[in-house]
Amino acid sequence: VQLQASGGGLVQAGGSLRLSCAFSGSIFSIVTMAWHRQAPGNQRELVGIITSVGSTNYADSVKGRFTISREIAKRTLYLQMNSLKPEDTGVYYCNARRGDGLMFWGQGTQVTVSS
User: Fold this and answer.
1) How many Cβ atoms sit within 10 Å of the Cβ of residue 75?
2) Is the pLDDT of residue 28 over 90?
């Protein structure tokens, strides 16, 4: 599975961005897809996750502000980010996990939120 993230940029606090992650290859055995982020000096953390049946879950810090979704026909995973805060700044990565636990990662896309 290959993943290609895009959509990052510079935005003012309170603004919105939508990240996209185009995926290709065999996705038959993919059980979850997710967005993670990593701020400078911090560990990579899970932001939101969506299962093969469409169930979603989010980090407490983004609940009510971020929405993860996917369009299988377009082979694209999304992360809609609203009411952005400076602490949302970081490199955002999309990820897919197979049923056997193997993980696939896209390259990151930088999100910078100015105060």
Assistant:
1) 13
2) no
8 forms bridges with which residues in the sheet?
Answer: none
> What is the secondary structure of 4-33 as a DSSP string?
EEE--EEEETT--EEEEEEEES--TTEEEE
Coil, strand or helix at 37 = strand
Q: Which residue has the tokens 């971020």?
A: 66
Chain-centroid distance, C-alpha 28: 20
For range 58-87, the mean pLDDT: 97
Alpha carbons 52 and 69: distance in angstroms, whole number: 11
Length of the chain: 115
- Give residue 18's pLDDT: 98
- Structure-block tokens of residue 24: 């290709």
Distance of alpha carbon 78 from alpha carbon 54, whole angstroms: 13
Q: Residue 103: is its pLDDT beyond 90?
A: yes
